[in-house]
Design a protein that fits this description.
Number of strands: 0
Largest sheet: none
Shape: globular
Oligomer: single chain
Structural class: mainly alpha
Length: 89
């Protein structure tokens, strides 16, 4: 049986990215990891993850939560660096 860490290690997502998907979609993290891994196989899925991460950073700024905004912005930038298809904005 695969654990969450196993799924994260098998796909090209970080724990922070999986958490973002899980929170947005209100899913358990292990299911979000499976879905996120599948999303990376399509342009639309990559764009969805990219936009989700960018929106989390912007929403944190809007709330005035600069610590979370910085964390979410870093997650967004790391995703764009690792996934060249995510660079298109």
């Amino acid at each position: 049986m695969l654990a969450l860490r196993d799924l994260i290690d098998m796909c090209d997502l970080t724990e922070a990215e999986v958490t973002a998907i899980a929170e947005k979609e209100k899913l358990p993290a292990i299911l979000a990891a499976q879905i996120g891994c599948a999303m990376l196989r399509s342009e639309g899925g990559v764009a969805y993850i990219r936009d989700l991460l960018r929106n989390r950073a912007e929403e944190a700024v809007d709330r005035g939560d600069m610590a979370s905004a910085a964390l979410h912005q870093r997650t967004y930038e790391e995703f764009r660096t690792r996934c060249p298809r995510a660079i298109r904005d």
